[in-house]
Amino acid sequence: xxxxxxxxxLRSCSLAVVTVVLAACSDSSGPSDTTIELTVDPVMSPxxxxxxxxxxxxxxxxxxxxxxxxxxxxxxxxxxxxxSFSVSLLANxxxxxxxxxxxxxGNRAADTLEIEQxxxxxxxxxxxxxxxxxxxxxxxxxxxLDFDEAxxxxxxxxxxxxxxxEITNSQPVGGVLRQDGTTSTLYPAGSNLTPLFDVxxxxxxEWTVSDSAVFTPGANQMLATIGDRAGNESSPAAIAxxxxxxxxxxxxxxxxxGAGATAVSEIIGLSNGDDVAGxxxxxxxxxxxxxxxxxxxxxxxxxxxxxxxxxxxAAGRVRVVLFDSSGDVLSPGQGAILTLWLTxxxxxxxxxxxxxxESIVLSDPQGGTSTLAAASGxxxxx
Length: 382
Hints:
mainly beta; Immunoglobulin-like
């Protein structure tokens, strides 16, 4: 009897212990894993590459699968969750790419990409001026180009990137002496002329050449290229044409100086279509306003010339002669050639006064001469 009671007591103790253990197991169970992160890095699109790197991050050790039109690739993310794949792209097409990440708990995350691939370069063609033709002068004509990506048999293009348009000329453009004494921007041979264009779109470009950006007379050749949004660049388009020279002309700029002012600069310019070996002219002014011409110096286009003389031939008339003993010439072009340094009469009344170059004679390297029409500027005495 005592033995039976003892065994019953032991059984009761064991059951109590088991119950406690099970309760403890039940209380220690944590929440289940129900989330997964997936971040896909941006890709270059459009592109002219035939492959692309697909990369990003997800949960550490998650399985990542990338499906592309030409590839299906899988790998596990590293301990930091990083993954990367190089996938092939369809040529001249849009490749749709899906990315699937699955973690060890079976959670799934997905993303998709579209990558535009364009390996065909665009085209650029000159519309005007006509190849081999002559312009109506150094300005006033139109430079026009067409951009195109319509290559036969290709269905997809990324589109022309108008910001990649570049055009150069074999001769200088611009550098024109203005009436106010300033000079427009000079674009040396080979400079990119796109800042001068009035219109640049995805379809083409157009520039009506103005008086402030005239071309150099004679033979010119322009080269143009255009790129597309995928990074392809066209073959250069070339056009050769002849720029007809404007009539030769002198330029006497406007200036301003107070009564009694010394070292007042008056700029003289020349636009010529043929080589000029020497220049002679009379500078005419009101002697009651300008008391003297103190000196004459070469500048800009004539800076290589080693000779300039001047002498007063009458009241208010000074003759100026520009020459070069070594045979240098003023090549076809336009711009400043001389500065006359003046002294304004201390008693000069306020007003606008004419400064005139007349009896202008140009000599060519062969000894021939030609005459130009008179040109005038204004001296303002405030």
